[in-house]
């Protein structure tokens, strides 16, 4: 189902303009699942600043065109060894397995590249498509969080999920 022409790789500053174009192209598509964004977010400088904020950002590409993004944010070391997974796919590319592939790629990087024990994710309660992505990637539902995130102008309820990556002790 996934065409080999698609690539999932770490974002670089060279991707900033394509990320801006993708965000603007998908602004309406993402409005129901994304927080409000300042105008600076939709600039090359804003995207480069996000790449340098300590989180892990990867892009999904179709040639030179960015068609999605996957992130590991809120990375915590020590006894917690966890991060939060986020992702989105361009509205024109839905149904091709790209979100699953991106999530699986990020899980492998979290485990093998960062040595994390656990990755968490959340979805709006009515975001069945994203819940399916998480289920396909081995996440388990662990809870319900009322008014969890401010999305599309209001505090929204979310389901919480986690995926345990390994049971090795954290590095000392």
UniProtKB/TrEMBL annotation:
Keyword annotations of the record: Acyltransferase, Transferase
Organism domain of life: Bacteria
Protein name: Ribosomal-protein-alanine N-acetyltransferase
Domain N-acetyltransferase as annotated: residue spans: 6-162
InterPro entries assigned to the protein according to its UniProt record, in alphabetical order: Acyl_CoA_acyltransferase, GNAT_dom, N-acetyltransferase
GO molecular function, one term: protein-N-terminal-alanine acetyltransferase activity
One GO term describing the cellular component: cytoplasm
Pfam family, one: Acetyltransf_3
Family: Belongs to the acetyltransferase family. RimJ subfamily.
